[in-house]
Write a structure and sequence with these properties.
Length: 145
């Protein structure tokens, strides 16, 4: 009976009707399997299902252009003898590494290596890319305590 039905559909417009029957079969199979608890694709699931396979933790959202900020607290009082005070603003815990006295040209070359050769993902990798040509290095863990 099903074969006669498909042959009749094929006589009228083969591609359209066969595609319609095939689509109905796939959707019906997915719904039946989902009803009996089998894992089916998300598009065939009921939109009212509230169970999720992974838990997502809520975070407070902030709109920022740059997720990391570094600001000189009082620029008018900053000098070579008294130093500077920096204020940081970062969305996540991070490690701030300051390199003092490095060449701007060497820093530019290191950043070019980061883009075109290899990713610099650790302070040691940046030191290697700078060829350790800096005067002083400091590290701070954010948030500062």
């Amino acid at each position: 009976m099903a074969a006669v039905f498909l042959v009749t559909l094929y006589e009228y417009s083969p591609l359209f009707y066969i595609a319609v029957v095939f689509t109905c079969f796939i959707v019906t199979t997915g719904l039946v399997l989902g009803w009996f608890g089998w894992d089916v694709p998300v598009i065939l699931r009921n939109s009212e299902e509230t169970q999720f396979s992974t838990r997502v933790f809520k975070k407070q959202m902030r709109q920022v252009k740059n997720p990391f900020g570094l600001e000189i607290t009082n620029p008018s009082s900053a000098s070579i003898t008294t130093g500077i005070t920096l204020t940081t603003d970062c969305l996540e815990d991070s490690l701030l590494t300051c390199y003092w006295g490095c060449s701007v040209q060497k820093l530019y070359e290191a950043l070019q290596k980061h883009v075109y050769c290899f990713r610099i993902s650790t302070p040691q990798a940046l030191e290697d890319a700078l060829y350790s040509e800096y005067l002083y290095q400091e590290q701070y863990l954010y948030p500062f305590v």
